[in-house]
Design brief:
single chain; alpha/beta; TIM Barrel; 8 strands; about 15% strand; binds 1,3-dihydroxyacetonephosphate
Length: about 250
Amino acid sequence: MRPLVAGNWKMNGLTAQLAEAMMLADGLAAGTPPVCDVMLCPPFPLISALVHVVKGRSILVGAQDCHAKASGAQTGDVSAEMLADIGASAVIVGHSERRADHGERDSDVKAKAEAALRAGLTAIVCIGETAGQRAAGLTLEVTGRQLAGSLPKGATAANTVIAYEPVWAIGTGLTASTADVAEVHAFLRRRLSELSPGNSDKLRILYGGSVKPANAKELMAVPHVNGALVGGASLKAADFLGILLGYRI
Ligand code: 13P
């Protein structure tokens, strides 16, 4: 299965940030192409411009959220159809920051993921436990429940990606140990075989949470880790290229 390394810019980046995307595209073109898909997910206002900037280059463009409905009286929201219309090919749904800051529940995440599939986008469905849940020994219970509750109907390896992002590892510089990552990813793979028989062994499961050039190779080598969802280190082309180095052979 071809891994995916996606950069989530979160609420960072004015138009000047597009220069980093150009540097990333140039950096990718300069060496042997990485044996993985590469994606950037900028804030909404930069999507159109980024699609234009990376046209013909080997970088996919995704969004960070969408509404479940195709259109309507939802002030301030953006639909999956709108994202597809401007050239995005994927959308992150259920990121822990949206679950925490906007009260998104598994059922909301599932509806958004299904909207993504309806619009022809790849849904990148995020799950992950908090520090308290891990300390209480609830990691597998929580991530298993989130996976079952958030997985869109009709999920296939072609239209859905899972991202395991332990909340306590996001933006903290802390990463899960390779043993912890291995345990959760193997568990998610088993759960997928129950939830989505036929697709389970091909669906990509990304790891996210303080992935940096210094730890990417080790994390990406863990069984059932099929790429990364990268926050802070995706904002600088040099850092992101450093993470992608592990996929250049
Ligand atoms: P960091 O890589 O900054 O920890 O963020 C991870 C993340 O939340 C990606 O979606």
